[in-house]
Specification:
Elements (H helix, E strand, L loop, with lengths): L3 H10 L41 E3 L11 E6 L4 H11 L9 E5 L6 E6 L5 E2 L15 E4 L6 H15 L17 H12 L3 H9 L7 E5 L29 H10 L14 E3 L4 E6 L4 E6 L1 E4 L5 E11 L19 E8 L4 E4 L9 E4 L11 E12 L2 E7 L3 E4 L4
Parallel strand pairs: 2-3, 2-4, 4-6
Antiparallel strand pairs: 1-7, 5-6, 8-11, 9-10, 10-15, 11-14, 12-13, 12-16, 16-17, 16-18
Length: about 400
């Protein structure tokens, strides 16, 4: 079993992004539609590279069950606009063994916000399950819907993310020779993107573990436009307005209407998180942490880590010795277990103290002049070379009182 020091190193150094949603793009005369979407989840990726040819990209860890009925609800938008989104989204149903069932009341898996801000974005696949029922999981900036073609390609793209697809230009063999400085400069000016946002949304590459049998596809609905001025060899990819043959082939493999899914991965989901209760105990000489959540498992068995990280009131990680910053000295506590498939487990639902994370007082030093702290609960899945985030809570405030 990997040591907690190794796990902490991965968690703090390999998480690429903690932002789930896109930034509002600025007006531009060179890019007619807002450029791209920030639909990647905060996922820690640790790979060992190999030379297998790259293919169409999907995150098999966040795929829905094959044959799943996915409940979808609109949080805003006119009925006319909603009806258009419904019609476009159902294009995926022609080829994938899933169904989108649109509801007006009751629980839902996907919740759509339609307004004039927020950019275009969607959580990847089953990550939507971890979001509270009153919050969106997909956003459309309707100022881009001036033409039906723009609306059509955008809705197809975001619903592609919602069923587990990744950006096609992340392919490890796309062979795109970026003129990075030109891209940084233009997207800062026209979209307000920082260098980090460009790196995350354009230049990162996924490992071949995320390939599923179709070659790199520049015609994919999941591919960003690439302008010739952005590459050193004038390579370009236009706006793609419909599902490509590669998209159709890939989605048929991921959600087959006949036979079993290939490349099955552990598919674990955390849902119904309510709060993290913190209890000071002089008897135990430490702090007990009681997160409340459910977890469901499918696909293949895998190891899961339940971790509580501690921060001061300003959001800085607390060090065990109170001063020295080191990965090995980050104040955290965890439990781990290998979970089998087809399980539905609950923690601190019927009884608040049935699942406990505990940290001794000597690992949470008193900081002079401070007694307000924060705790953050995270759940990670480890599968061979892959480290996948399943849940990351908002930070809860608590008072650290040690007598």
């Amino acid at each position: 079993m990997k040591s907690i020091k190794f796990i902490l190193m991965l968690l703090f150094l390999c998480v690429l992004s903690t932002s789930l949603y896109a930034q509002k793009a600025k007006k531009t005369t060179t890019v007619k539609q807002k450029y791209g979407c920030s639909s990647e989840i905060p996922v820690a990726k640790m790979y060992i590279e190999d030379t297998t040819p790259g293919r169409g990209l999907a995150d098999n860890y966040y795929l829905w069950d094959n044959g799943k009925i996915i409940y979808v609800k609109f949080l805003s938008g006119s009925k006319s606009l909603q009806d258009k989104v419904k019609t476009i989204a159902k294009e995926w149903e022609k080829y994938a063994n899933i169904k989108f069932h649109f509801v007006e009341v009751g629980p839902s898996h996907i919740r759509i916000n339609l307004d004039d801000k927020g950019g275009h974005n969607s959580l990847i696949g089953t990550m939507a399950i971890s979001v509270p029922q009153d919050e969106k999981t997909m956003n459309f900036d309707t100022t881009d819907f001036k033409t039906y073609a723009a609306m059509y390609r955008t809705v197809l793209h975001e619903f592609g993310h919602a069923i587990g697809l990744l950006h096609e230009h992340y392919s490890p063999i796309s062979g795109i020779h970026w003129n990075k400085e030109a891209v940084y400069r233009e997207l800062k000016q026209t979209q307000g993107w920082t260098k980090e946002m460009v790196d995350v949304n354009l230049f990162q590459q996924y490992n071949v573990n995320y390939t599923n049998g179709t070659k790199y596809d520049p015609k994919s609905i999941m591919h960003y436009p690439v302008f010739a001025r952005w590459t050193t060899d004038n390579y370009s990819v236009n706006w793609n307005n419909q599902l490509s043959e590669g998209d159709i082939a890939l989605i048929k493999l991921l959600y087959p209407k006949d036979g079993e899914r290939l490349n099955e991965a552990p598919r674990f989901t955390v849902s119904d998180y309510t709060n993290t209760r913190v209890v000071n105990s002089d008897v135990k000489q430490g702090i007990s942490i009681y997160p409340s959540f459910n977890i469901s498992t499918a696909g293949r068995p895998a190891r899961v880590y339940f971790i509580a990280f501690f921060y001061d009131a300003d959001g800085n990680p607390i060090m065990k010795d109170g001063t020295t910053y080191s990965i090995s000295k980050i104040a955290a506590t965890y439990k781990t277990a290998v979970l089998d498939v087809n399980q539905k487990l609950s923690a601190n639902k019927s009884k608040f103290d049935e699942f406990e994370l505990f940290i001794p007082y000597n690992e949470l030093p008193v900081i002079k002049g401070k007694n307000n702290f924060q705790v953050e609960f995270r759940v990670y899945l480890i599968d061979d070379k892959e480290l996948k985030i399943l849940y990351q809570s908002k930070r809860s405030l608590f008072n650290f009182i040690k007598s």
